[in-house]
Amino acid sequence: MPQQIIVVLMLICCIGIAAVWAILLRRRLLDVGAHAAMLQADAQQRSSWLKHQDDEIKWLRSELDIRPRLVRKTYKILTLGVKGTGKTSLTLKWANPLVDLGTIKETQVERYERWVSHVLDNDVLTEHVFQIDDWGGEHIVEAQHELIVEEIHGLLVVVDLGGPNANEVDPDRIQAQLREFQPQALRFLFGPKMLTVCKTVVLFINKSDLIPGTPAHVEEEAKRYYAPLIENLKKYSAQVNICILVGSASYGHSTHHLFSHFVEKILPKDAYDEHLLQRMKQNGGPRGGKGGEE
């Protein structure tokens, strides 16, 4: 009898242990199932992301296929003048008007770019850009060499009425600059290649604020000081456009005319876009007559 009881008790223990194992196994299976479901959901999400990225890549490729081809057309403008005439200040006034003039450092040559227009023609988008080379005054010989060997579309010659920190007109400095651009030097500048490619030559008489009086009087006096150079430049007016401007880079007098003038004389008419037309209308062009001389 006791032996039978022991057997029954052992059976009960085995059944209990089996039940516990069954419960643990069931829980384990549930955990595995939940983990598998989570992995499946994660895989589906990753698949969805990959599909979205693939669709986006296909869309970007289709956009690139229909996007116009970008072409860049550069027009080169050379700034020339002796040291201290305010060439760099003047160049930056119209080429990059947002620059801090206090950060300018003297170097052999500074190159600036100014976007002019974007013109779409069928599947080609042409970007028209002015490249302005501003040569340091002590490197005027190298600048003249560039004018001879490179294709220059515009020339900006800067002279002044007084040196740095001047309070009045300096006749000796004016005479020195007249000697720098005497007829022999101009013949050297206005070579066959330059006259073939260059569209306009601008003489900018800087530091007009040194002459007191009305704007008309200031302009008349400034041109009188540089009359010999102006007359020598006029000799080339049948071959290239000559423009004379009187102004002040420091005060911004007449500097806004430069961009409009270079656009009008250099840029082809089919290179105008709506933005440029509006800007030209707002700024207007430089004063003067028509034809080869202004």
Overall 3D geometry? rod-shaped
| CATH architecture assignment name of the largest domain | 3-Layer(aba) Sandwich
Query: Termini, distance in Å?
Result: 136 Å
Main sheet specs: 6 strands, mixed
CATH hierarchy, class of the largest domain:
Alpha Beta
* Oligomerization: single chain
- Please give the share of residues in helix: 40-55%
Low-confidence stretches: 98-107, 285-293
Major sheet strand order: 2-3-1-4-5-6
Short précis:
The chain is of the alpha/beta class and 294 residues long. It contains 10 helices and 6 strands.
List the keywords:
294 residues, alpha/beta, Rossmann fold, 6-stranded mixed β-sheet, 10 helices, 6 strands, 50% helix, rod-shaped, disordered C terminus
